[in-house]
Amino acid sequence: MVGIAAIPNSGKPRALIYTPAGRDASVAVSLIDEAGLESIAAADLSTFASSLSDDIALGVLTEEAVRSSDLKAIASWVSAQPSWSDLPFIVLTMRGGGPERNPSAARLSEVLGNVTFLERPFHPTSFISIIRTALKGRHRQYEARAQLEALSEGERRLQTALVAGRLGAWELELSSKALSVSPTCKEIFGRGADDDVTYDDLIESIHPEDRPVVEARLRQTIDTGRDYSIEHRTIWPDGSLHWTEVHAQLYTDRYGSARKLVGVCSDITTRKTAEDDLRRLNETLEERVKERTREVNTAHQTLLEEVAQRERAEEQLRQSQKMEAIGQLTGGVAHDFNNLLMVVLGNLELLGKHVAGDAKAMRLVDGALQGARRGAALTQRLLAFARQQDLQVRPVDLAELVTGMHDLLQRSVGSSINIETILPAALPPALVDANQLELALLNLAVNARDAMPEGGRLAISLREEQVIGNDGGLGEGSYLVLAVADSGTGMDAETLKKAVDPFFSTKEVGKGTGLGLSMIHGLAVQLNGALVLTSELGIGTTAELWLPATERPPERPAEELPALEASPGLKILLVDGDTLIAMSSADMLEDLGHDVVEANSGSEALALIRSGQHFDLMITDYSMPGMTGAQLAQSARNMLPTLPIVLATGYAELPAGTDIDLPRLGKPYNQAQLAKEITKAIAGETTPILGSSRIATASVPRLAEADDRRDEIGDGVRVI
Predict the structure, then answer these.
(1) Is 666 a domain residue?
(2) Less CB within 10 Å around the terminal CB: N or C of the chain?
(3) Co-location of 116 and 182 in the same domain
(4) Residue 720 falls within a domain, yes or no?
């Protein structure tokens, strides 16, 4: 028997026992030990109550010891348990647990809640079975606690991103018009953080001329489910005029009824002021042009042309700045999501090994893994839009690439759509990333399918074009044009202008991310090419990818070499500034049989190396405060020139001048990828960085995996 004072709060689940009469305590302790659980025996009922905590896995009581006792302290603790907790109790009784034989059992059931009555005398096997059942239930509660903590951390990171982007968050319950707003949202509408702000307050603050448009747009969103997006003037309590941009989505209940609006807002007064200044400047310039044309007819047309060119340049500059700002924010958020997914995927993969025999648990783990992998696919689209994804640019035979994808494309669009290919022979290769181009082509095909609900024709063609001078941002030279044309519903001119805008979609809520065409546009620009869209209502849409041609022959994959196996038992120095990621990676490494020493910064890692400890390998994150992974690797190599090093990163855009030749491990990674990079590093292989830091080994799955992911890719936007 273990006394209450002998074991401090160790954090390990234990059984708490109060059985003061006879041999009950010793028998209970013995059987609980046999079930593999530590136990604590309380000397009295008050000690039992004060010892209750989240670390207690179950409680064991005898009915006669508590029948006439004051159970207020126990009842108070039971009722105060957190939402994830429902501590199981086992009551040993001489009269069973039924109300007809044991009326006092109802009182104990009401006080203890989750209680099982075991009538004496009982067989030891029955008691052990009840103990194990209760312990299994308690472990599920602990898992629920861990999931709730992870969700809470994700919410904190989301709030940090909103604050960093100066975005105000708001939520409106449609039935009650109850409005909840963040402090930043209040600030955007000229209110203080402690001010009470209602829905009517915000409507009243909108400029009277803009209010009807706002209300009409809200009704349209509620009636149709279309995303809410608007810019309007706002009058602050001090009378000053400001501009506000608002975006929201409609949430419905399971019956399809509109339930609430959730959205963000931002202050765009500075931008609007600049636009007004620019407009007034243009108006002034136009007036001067008119005056000049009256005086000098010969200079008339040459000067309207100069103004038009300037206006086009200014518009291009505004769009470029806008896309750059959104891209930076998106890339940062995607990087943080990669780190979060690293923790989720790593822990789920290891958890799957521990519950391999539990079909229900494996189903739950597999479901969570699929969701996390979809999140990883979404971050790839975000990084593609932000132009921060890895690219592996090589000469590629586009005709061969399209031909190899034919079966996948046909399965993706269905039998009601006929795919035609026009692939001339003897075309030169194009300089592209084959992985990304395959995903882009699949995305365009699925978008075309959505525009042809009744079936139709999908034509995929290749041709070579020459660009002379600078045409629409394309440099002079030879280009291969990959065209995807459908016979679908097409787009009007206004919709076509917005087609590649990030998060723009005409699909219903939940049917698309609005990043499909934005990702393809970003890919084309990164490859020094362009995406050209043409469309006509009722006729169809054609998407053309202009890609640089090359005279270099396509590279053929080298014959596969047998996989190198890194022996378990390596001593590995793991460096990561994020404790959660370090913990997940350490668990995966230890599961592979390695000895792991953790460091949370570059300086801490260098101190461990200077201490004289021997390490077979160092794995370091790139983005860390104080010292980057590249700087750490350089310093470590100065001390230990032969130390193998693997560099892990959430995205591949390293600063200019980062000249280090290391194996690269893209986040989020799984245990197999981790083992593969360890093997390569120990064998002395490296992943070369080609050209600038934006062009490196890609971490996107090959086409063989794209077949399993086409449903995820099908979430790309299709404008119809």
Answers:
(1) yes
(2) N
(3) no
(4) no
